[in-house]
Amino acid sequence: MQVPAPFDYERATSVDHAIGLLERLGDSARIVAGGHSLLPMLKLRLANFEYLIDINDLHSELGYIRAERNEVRVGAMTRHRELLESDVLVEAFPIFRDAERVIADPVVRNRGTLGGSLCQADPSEDLSAVCTTLDASCVIQGSGGTRVVSMEDFYQGPYETAVGAAELLREIRIPLRPGGSSAYEKVERRAGDWAVVSSGAAVWLEDGLIGDARVGLAAVGPNTAGIPAISEALRGKAPTDELFAQAGALAAESCNPSADMRGSIAYKRHLANELTQRALRRSVARISGQGV
Amino acid sequence: MQVSLTVNGEEVSEEIEGRLLLVHFLRDQLGLTGTHWGCDTSNCGTCVVWMDGEPVKSCTVLAAMAGGREVRTVEGLEQNGELDPVQQGFMECHGLQCGFCTPGMMMTARALLDRNPDPSEQEIREAISGQICRCTGYATIVRSIRWAAVHESAVSIGGRP
Fold it and tell me: How far apart are CA B124 and CA B133, in angstroms?
C-alpha cells in the first residue's frame, strides 16, 4: 500500500491566495494541480512536503486556451483532455493533438494539467518537448508580479524548474508564426507509457524553402532541449527526404540517452533519428495540406 | 481535517487525514467497497470513480481534493432498483470473469456513453485504454458496452443523472 507521508492540505481560492500561502510556508509547501505526477512521487516517498496547496478551484481562472494576434496563451491549469480537444490548438499547433493522444490514458488526461506536466520537469515528459519545439515561454507569478522565461531557462534539470519557492506557473505562451505546421512522433512500449523516445518538429516554409525549423526531443537525456544545429542545417533549404535524413542524424548525435529497461543507447539514438525525420516530414506535409 | 462532499447523491462529512487517498476514503471510511483498489499507480483503472461528472483514478486523487465535489461510484450506477444498461450489458455479454476490473470499466463505459451514445468498437477501446483486465477479457467488455449502447437507444431509461 502506497501512502504519502503526512502533510497538511490547503485549498487556494485565488492565485494571490496560493502565492500568499507559498510565501508563508516556504519550500515546505508544494502546489498540487491534477496531482498525477506529484501524488505518485509522494506515494513513493520520492517527494515529501509538509503542506500541499490544491489549486484545482482555480481552474476557471487558469484553465483556458486563447488565440491572440501573435501568440496562443494557455493557462497552466488547462487539463490534458482540454488540450487534446481544443480546435484552436489543433489548428495552430497540431503537434499538441499528436502528443496528447499518446500521453497516459483518457482517465488520467481528465486530471493532469499542462502546468503540472511542465513543473514536474520529467526528462521523459512529452509536453515539455512540445513546448520546446514550439519555442514557448512560461509566465511565472510571484508576489512581486510576473516574469516570462523561455523553455530553455524554465527547465533547469530533471525535476527542477525556474519556478521559485514562492512562485506559481501561470501561463504558457506559444508564438504564432505564419506558414508553419508541426508534428509529434513517439515510440512507447505499450499504450499510455512514458516515451522510449519522442521527437517533436515544427517547420515554417517561405517560398517553398524552410524559413525556420525546430526539433525537440524527449526521454533522451537530462535536457529536453531544442537542437539548434538542426535548425541551422535546415534553414534556407528545400524540404527533401535527404535533408531530413541529415536532421535525423544530427538528432541522434546530439542527444544523450541512457540504457534502461526501455532500450539500449543505440536503439534510442536510432529512434531519435527516425522519429525526427518522420516529424519533420509530417510537419511539411501538413503545411501543404497533405498531412493528417 | 474535515471533508464534506456528495457521494452517490448523499452528503457525507468525515474527519480525515490530508494524505488520505479517495479510494481508501470510499472503501474504508464509507464502506463503499465496490470501487476496487488495484495497482496504486494510476495504471490499472479499477479504482475509477466520477468526480463532478468526470472519470478519475481515485488512487491518485486525495479525499481532500474531492471536498465540495460530487463523487459517483459503481454503487451509484443502479437507479431506483434498476441496473444501469452498462451493468446489464456486462451480464448479458459476459463482460466479467474475475470481476476485479469491472467497477472501473463500467464507470468509464457509462461516461463514454453519456458523451457518445453510439461509440464504435475503436472508440470503446480508446475509452477503456486506461483500464487493465488481467483476465484479458477485452473482447467481451467491448461487446458489453456495445450492448448497452444499442439497448439504451431502444428503451427509455428514466431517472439517470
Answer: 14
Whole-number Å distance between alpha carbons of B31 and B1: 20
Q: Which residues of B touch A63 (CB under 8 A)?
A: none
Give B98-138 pLDDT, tens digit per residue.
999 999 999 999 999 999 999 999 999 999 999 999 999 99
How far is it between the farthest Cα atoms of chain A? 60
Count Cβ neighbours within 10 Å for each residue of A235-246 and write b for 16 or more, e otherwise: eeeebeeebbee
Q: Which three cell numbers stand for residue A281?
A: 516530414
**Does residue A15 sit in helix, strand or coil?**
helix
Phi, psi dihedral angles at A8 (to 5 degrees): -95, 140
Instruction: Identify from B24, B46, B50, B57 which residue to disrupt to test chain A contact, counting A C-beta atoms within 10 A and taking the largest count.
Output: B57
Chain A residue whose CA is closest to B54? A110
Give the ipTM of the model, two decimals please.
Answer: 0.93
Nearest 10 degrees: CA dihedral of A175, A176, A179, A185?
60
pLDDT tens for residues A179-215? Answer: 999 999 999 998 889 999 999 999 999 999 999 999 9
pTM score of the predicted model: 0.94
> d(Cα B151, Cα B138) in Å, to the nearest integer?
20
